[in-house]
Specification:
The structure is a homodimer. By secondary structure, the first copy, chain A, is α/β, with parallel strands linked by helices. Chain A contains 7 helices and 10 strands. Chain A has helices spanning about 25-35, 55-60, 80-90, 105-120, 190-210, 215-235, 240-260; strands at about 10, 15-20, 40-45, 65-70, 100-105, 130, 140-145, 160, 165-170, 180. In chain A, the strands form 2 sheets. Chain A has a 6-stranded parallel β-sheet with strand order 2-10-7-5-3-4, with helices on both faces. Chain A has a 3-stranded mixed β-sheet with strand order 6-9-8, with helices on one face. In chain A, β3 (about 40-45), α2 and β4 (about 65-70) form a beta-alpha-beta unit. In chain A, α5 runs antiparallel to α6 (about 215-235), α5 packs parallel to α7 and α6 (about 215-235) runs antiparallel to α7. Chains A and B meet through β1, β2, α6 and α7 of A and β1, β2, α6 and α7 of B. β2 of chain A pairs antiparallel with β1 of chain B.
Chain lengths: ~270, ~270
Amino acid sequence: MTILDTGIKNIRNVSRCTLGEGSLAELPRLLLRRKQEHPGPVLFFADQFLEGSDSIKKLNIGPADKLIFVASAHEPSTDGIDAIVAGLHATGFQKPSCIVGIGGGTTMDTAKAVANLLTNGGKAEEYQGWDLVKVPGVYKIAVPTISGTGAEATRTCVMTNTRTGLKLGMNSDFTTYDHVIMDPSLTATVPKNQYFYTGVDSYFHSMEVLAGSYRNVIGDAFAREGLTLCREVFLSNDMMSDDNRERLMIASYFGGCAIATSSTGSCIHFRRG
Amino acid sequence: MTILDTGIKNIRNVSRCTLGEGSLAELPRLLLRRKQEHPGPVLFFADQFLEGSDSIKKLNIGPADKLIFVASAHEPSTDGIDAIVAGLHATGFQKPSCIVGIGGGTTMDTAKAVANLLTNGGKAEEYQGWDLVKVPGVYKIAVPTISGTGAEATRTCVMTNTRTGLKLGMNSDFTTYDHVIMDPSLTATVPKNQYFYTGVDSYFHSMEVLAGSYRNVIGDAFAREGLTLCREVFLSNDMMSDDNRERLMIASYFGGCAIATSSTGSCIHFRRG
């Protein structure tokens, strides 16, 4: 093998995607079915900028469910995640049927971390690292409201360790979302600068994969297509058209898939040759 | 929306992939873990051409497990599938922990159909059509030994109805494999003609998606990349090099993903506009 590292990779994919303009409206039906099979309340994490928005109204939050708004100015901290979990335990919130993360990378990562902690116990920093999460987290659904972070597709959730100051994720197959709803109508109201700069995040995810040391065919394939979609969007006359917002949403997802499948982000072991 | 049909799609992805040369060796470990969590024997379906091969030895088949060789000259028939299921019941074979399909499209499709019938009951032809499978099939793992069919990634298993002569699949989210092992070393011994003609199948899967009426961004993305990989393979000087066999395996998988995500193969409903 001349150009590719061919270590054996174990890849955990997002199991289900719901895609299309207006697809957020599918969420209540999905949650209802989930509750029938796995009774319990739903725990929603939503970006604080969504407070009072139509998107929140569409979530159809029931009286037993809980909605927590997430401040997205900074990435999650280990203390912040621990405080959320402690708060849930203190109020007697039972094990949820499902956790929903609706927002950007910070919100989606917060939901991932809490989902792992609710089933694994302990403190957030105990799981910062490689495959330290022992059992599957609570079943979880991502609803990205901005494109580019790739958090909807990756197997990590980045947190700043409050004690050490280091940024490190819970890198685990159990961190990957079970279901992602990709509704491009949710990014129509994102400020143009933020839309662009976050979108570029996904461009660089794909670039990093293609420039990385642990490449493989599937990671390269996701990354190449992520770049193609980004270029179509950013080189067009209207990067926020309906079509382009859908393209950038898929570019973000593919960029996340590229990271999750190609880099050390997903290997179980390497056989270097 | 000018160029793309934007119906809402519900996509069931393969949840896990194990990828890389020699990755078949991971299977016994995966099956052991599966058996620990879900006790029961393993039911293997293998292409008859693998009889006596090293690949069969690597499966590490236990005394309680069962191996059925599949004649791959023709696609599965409904009567053939029913006969397999009746045979399993007649010999008192208990519900398997896992079903493994190792071979080409016929073998992988046979495993899919039997997995659905063992949990849903009834006859194969009752499930030929759209979303007629009621409950998840037995957990199943695909090991393609030839690239191109895409059966490792699609939500259908094609069967000829013995009574009517019509070819029709069990088109269902429950038909999709849970885990796919993509080991390019398994295609090293495929006759060159067969390697090419089956590989071209995947080229046309991607072509069909891009020429189809029910396109969307994600299906197009998988298809474009499937075509790129096919072209790299077929236009090279050695289409069966180690790298190219890995590329064609991913092209086959992406071709299957393209069909499963873009066409009517995965829609839950359409909102035409």
